[in-house]
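User: Second chain of the day. Same drill as before.
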Amino acid sequence: MSTGKKIITQTELEQHNMGKSLWIAIHNQVYDVTKFLDEHPGGEEVLLEQAGQKATEAFEDVGHSDDARELMKDFLIGELAEADKEPEVEQSEELQSSNSTATAISWLIPAAISIGIIAVAVYKMMST
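Assistant: Same format as last time:
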């Protein structure tokens, strides 16, 4: 199935691993960030560390803004070949995990407070 984008292999990505030609893959999309080195707010070293590699985890760990994600589109040159793609983590799985944690906390705190109030009430009744 053709998406109209240039298909780039892992081997080809790895060849662009220096400041004079720096490609990175994020979410299986390949970006030529050579011209962005001097402009990157985190400094060029951050990009050089990821040069020629899959950088999805590093990119997401930083928590880039919506503006940064929009700017990336200017540097998109293709996508990784099917055989070289990273499995994508479904965002809904991440949200479900965080939602279940939030749900547990949302009932746990009121339950603990209620138990505390009941314990104080019982103590006061027993001591009078």
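The longest helix spans residues 91-127.

User: Great, on to the next one.
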